[in-house]
Amino acid sequence: MVSALVSLAGACGHAGSGAPPDSSKPAPVIAAAAPAARADATHGLVMDAAFVKASPKDVLVAWYVYGGDRVALWHSRTDEASHRTEDEFDMEALTRSLLARNWSDMRAKGVAPDAYLDSMAEIEREGLMNEYVLVWFARPGWTIPPGVLGKVGLDRYRAYAGAHLVGHRAVRPVRFHPPAGRAVPEIPGATLPALSTLDPRATPCSASRARFAEALARWEVEESRLPGAPLAAADGAGFVRAIERVRAAAPFAQRGATWVGPNVADLHHLAGFCAVDEGRWADAERLLSKAAALDPLQSSSRSELAFVYTRLRRLDEADRLASEALELATSDCERARSLRQRGYVAIERGKLLEALQDYHRSLELAPGNATAEQEIKVILAELRRIGGASAKAAADYKPPPASPGLKVTACPR
């Protein structure tokens, strides 16, 4: 993965006239206290040996029933969907709910308490099992169905976790290795080319054009086979935050969300950057819009797309995207870049004082940035030229032409 996405947005200039809740702390991809099952297991139900040794009989019975439910569910679905893997959201959510209910029944019959299984029973009673599974066990390749996506209550889960799950650690001591198919899903996009080999800072866009086209064509085929709309994330916490942002929006509300690798969004961003570099504005809009949809938490693609819309004179959309990029920015570098882009749009709209404020704010975050300093000089010269920022002067304002020499701005990921 490219460690810092390139961006023209925020470097543009005019020619001068002068989380998952802290209380839960899930692991990046999947949290499980139990060590891996034995390496020689090719199929069947496997329980962690250390867990067996340390646990009372009733706890082991509950987990074996959970494992049996997974085996039964796998066999009930394999004929109609042989491409599916054993470790999926609906598989885990359903069998863990059954585990919690079974344990509640066992406790009602007098078995001794178990802290972890008691917590599962309580989470099930609270109606938060889907959220628990999503926060703790989601992994690349999982699909969250639209019916779940529209109802997921992560704010309520956070409140519950803050009160009841401080120091909690999820476990899954039983694994089912299916006799056919895959135990865990493949990561969508995993076979795409290494993005470091497509980085425009190392290889000119013109030299990578064919490789971009081939990679994008391969992804289009892979995407068509996904059960849900692709949603890119680097880790579980990012996937949860992305779900919160898009769960009510198209196409996720209709199709659900499938977790794909972050390199998929980065590929579209880099291809869009090259389209901007070569002046292919329609391609740039399409690719950068796709990158922004794939990764709803990514600031850089929105800044770049705002630049494209500015060049296409779609200034309302450019202003919206620049402000959205600023909202999503996670570093001073990204904030400064977004402010420069928003300032650039403001100049194009004749809002010179707003532009001046944005560029000064960007310099507070990125002192000495040459683009911001140049644009401030341009704004001051323009204000002198038109005799101030009065409404009459701004109404007929025509911005100076864009500077032909644009520098690349890169912010660390």
Q: Can you give a write-up of this model?
A:
The chain is mostly helical and 413 residues long. It folds into two domains: 4-18 and 189-225 and 234-412, Alpha Horseshoe (Serine Threonine Protein Phosphatase 5, Tetratricopeptide repeat), CATH 1.25.40; 44-177, no CATH class. It has helices at residues 49-54, 57-78, 89-108, 115-125, 129-137, 146-149, 154-164, 205-224, 236-246, 252-255, 262-277, 281-294, 299-311, 315-328, 332-348, 352-365, 370-386, 391-395; strands spanning 4-7, 44-47, 143-144, 174-177, 229-232, 257-260, 409-412. The strands form three sheets. It has a three-stranded mixed beta sheet. A two-stranded antiparallel sheet has the order 1-7. Helix 11 (262-277) runs parallel beside helix 13 and helix 14 (315-328) packs antiparallel against helix 15 (332-348). The protein is elongated and about 85 Å long. The protein starts with a strand and ends with a strand.
Q: Give the overall shape, derived from the CA principal axes.
A: elongated
The class by helix and strand makeup works out as mainly alpha
How many strands, what sense, and barrel or not for the largest sheet?
3 strands, mixed
CATH superfamily of the largest domain: Tetratricopeptide repeat domain
Count up the domains: 2
Number of strands: 7
CATH top level of the largest domain? Mainly Alpha
Spatial strand sequence of the major β-sheet: 3-6-5
Radius of gyration: 26 Å
Briefly note the CATH topology name of the largest domain: Serine Threonine Protein Phosphatase 5, Tetratricopeptide repeat
The succession of helices and strands, N to C, reads: EEHHHHHEHHEHEHHEHHHHHHHHE
Question: What is the overall number of helices?
Answer: 18
Through-space gap between termini = 10 Å
Poorly predicted tracts of residues = 17-41
